Amino acid sequence: MRGDARALRHFDAEYAEAARGEDGSSPAVEVGFGRERERAVALIAGGHKTVRWRIALGGAASSPLTAHVGLRGAPRSFALSLVQGYFVESLIAIAAARAGHVLLPAAALGQSGGALVMLGASGTGKSSISVRALGAGACVLGDDQILVDRDGSCFRFPRRMRFYSDLRLTAPAVWARLPQTARRALQARRVVRVLSRGLVAPSLPLAAHVIGDPGSAGPLQAVRFVLIERAASVHDLTLTPVAADEAVAQGLALLASQRERFAAGIDESWRAALDEVAELERAILVRAFARAPIERLAVPHAWDAARAIPELAAALGTER
What's the pTM? Predict the structure, then answer.
């Protein structure tokens, strides 16, 4: 990462666990903030609400993968978080796939001598379940993204966890252990969520050690995969087996949805590269999902988080 002090502070806080000294190895991804320093192969311009961005990408086959980011608007922290999720981590996922790993939209907890892996779209409870489990002393590899290889080995993705404004209801024991500054920040986010009628629901990124020891960074062998989804057609938690090919398709769909903004502005060379990466990810997931049982856990859409999260934790056995 290169850029102004504020950008560097943001990414230092997010990826502090991955920081290392100079060991002579080359990075797989380089991102700079400020003016473009080299001719771009692809330009992505866009924005969301009060912020705008302009992303200048280097070549899709280059090593390292490069991007230069120009930002406008406020708040700056909001812009940095969006660019991180939409573009920086898309580049990291591409590099990971080329190195034999999938940066999977999933949470993973230590369980039964291995890892319970929970896949699901945003809002299905992965982070809240992980926060509760961490507070109960479980090993947490990640609450929103993990690295998985073709052997089904799971590794921590070294990023801060996400805490949500309903934490007081979904994980009261964890709420009680948070520093006062974190509780005030979550209360402010709750006000924003209420005033916007749920349209704006920002999370609070915090390092896992604020509430507990996350344990091993991996690898832990996946011993169970659970696809969590909200469903209007059920009135109670429903657990059913899932075929591996269906799980692979859902995993790839989640990955594609994370890259929607990235993919919207790229040129043909980058589109071809994304297609190649998707095939690499498919091959990795086919083998990984063949190594452990897979289930779907449907949660009634009518349940609010205060009911859904404790029920999910009990059904998954994440706090034993």
Answer: 0.92
